[in-house]
Design goal:
The chain is of the alpha/beta class. Helices cover about 50% and strands about 15% of the residues.
């Protein structure tokens, strides 16, 4: 019987050794159980949460239509998918093409108890990735509450040191200049033209509307005042917002 091997690891914290270990176990399983391995499909540093973003996995599904293999060998079922829905849909697709999925490390019988065992293993895999996602989100929220950098973009005028926002003395004056120019009746297009690359209308507008410059740190629904160094005082920021709103209404009346 002809089989292919599918191997995957989830993140850059894992290494090529993870793949080699999976392949070794699957090759040994194939040899001991009379499978001839036609090909190996490998997705490196890609989550198994969804099937859509795994190129080799999707290539394997497409190749199953050609009838060139009868089984997909995986180290464990969680390498195939961590979502029960993805797992069910992809296995159904493979079954229609005469292909079954076999776990080299998990003993799953072909009878009714095997169906229960497979469902249990898939449920555990999905629970694991859901719990991990919640832990990561909680960790980011805790960092945000402390005013620590969470990995999002760093606004012009700041840089990161020891996970904290500090003032970038080379670009902070540009932020102050943008606010000063705008409040002196220089339009956004004019300011962008004056500053030149890499500034444009959108980047100037983002700076003028970014409350972080008043020291407010925002992450999701979390908003903490005075969590990062202030570049613009409240009065200046609020004047700029009022002027933008006024200019928006004038523009709307003209057109």
């Amino acid at each position: 019987m002809t089989a292919v091997i599918y191997a995957r690891y989830s993140s850059n914290t894992q290494t090529e050794l993870s793949i080699e270990g999976q392949l070794k176990v699957c090759r040994e399983y194939a040899e001991h159980n009379g499978f001839s391995v036609a090909r190996e499909y490998i997705d490196r540093a890609i989550s198994g949460k969804t099937a859509n973003n795994r190129p080799d996995f999707n290539m394997m599904l497409a190749d199953s239509y050609h009838g060139e293999f009868e089984a997909v060998l995986v180290y464990q079922l969680d390498r195939f998918a961590r979502s029960r829905l993805d797992s069910a849909l992809c296995k159904a697709q493979l079954r229609l093409n005469g292909v079954r999925v076999i776990s080299a490390k998990e003993t799953i019988s072909d009878d009714a108890s095997g169906i229960l065992m497979e469902a249990l293993l898939e449920g555990i895999a999905e629970y694991y990735i859901c719990e991990l996602s919640q832990k990561v989100r909680r960790g980011l929220e805790i960092n945000a509450a402390k005013g620590l950098y969470t990995g999002a973009g760093v606004p012009t005028g700041y840089k990161i040191a020891n996970k904290r926002f500090i003032i970038d003395t080379s670009t902070a004056p540009i932020v102050k200049r943008i606010f000063d120019m705008y409040l002196s009746d220089h339009g956004i297009t004019e300011i962008a033209r004056c500053l030149g690359n890499p500034f444009n209308r959108n980047s100037v507008r983002r700076i003028l509307t970014n409350r972080r410059y008043t020291g407010v740190y925002k992450y999701g629904s979390i908003e903490i005042p005075d969590a990062i160094p202030r570049l613009i005082d409240d009065e200046t920021f609020n004047k700029a917002q009022a002027m933008m709103e006024r200019n928006k209404k004038i523009y709307a009346r003209c057109f």
